[in-house]
Amino acid sequence: MHLVWRFTVAFTLLGLTPLAATARPLNCRSHESTFVETETRSYWVNICGGDFPAYYMAMNKQDPKLSIRLPLRDWSPRGDYFEAVNGDYTYVLADTPRGIFLTVSRGTHELLREPVLRRWY
Q1: Most buried pick, 23, 86, 102, 103, via CB within 10 A?
Q2: Single pTM value for the model
Q3: What is the pLDDT along the chain (121 residues), one digit of tens a residue?
Q4: Cα–Cα distance between 59 and 65 in angstroms, integer?
Q5: Cα–Cα dist 61/108, whole Å
Q6: What residues contact residue 24 under an 8 Å CB cut-off, 6+ apart?
């Protein structure tokens, strides 16, 4: 609970622009390709782009107003690693030796790590 509160505060402090709340998980924009459409216990996550992955999107399942869309800083051509950065915050969607996780960190401090519920590749 405390972790969710800190993550919510991080969204608020960063002044993130909410995406339109919908009853269904995130969608890439109509002119974009969807490279990843998956979820964790708390978030829907999409990776969108054109010919290549370009954007990380996440929406909180409890509060859809807590949404983010960021350009990718790095990604793997295999489709098993995506990284986006917003100031001090780093968002990583990755297949690791211990499983597939969504991880959010501020500097070296991990704020969130949740297993992905559906493999996308």
Answers
A1: 102
A2: 0.79
A3: 443 444 444 444 444 444 444 445 679 999 999 999 999 999 999 999 999 999 999 999 999 999 999 999 999 999 999 999 999 999 999 999 999 999 999 999 999 999 999 888 7
A4: 8
A5: 26
A6: none
- Closest listed residue to residue 32, CA positions, set 51, 57, 19, 56: 51
How many Cβ atoms are within 10 Å of 120's Cβ, its own excluded? 18
User: Residue for token digits 């509060």?
Assistant: 63
Q: The tokens 């002044």 sit on which residue?
A: 15
Tally DSSP H helices, then E strands, for the chain: 1, 8
Alpha carbon distance 110, 89 (integer Å): 10
Dihedral sign of CA atoms 92, 93, 97, 100 in order: positive
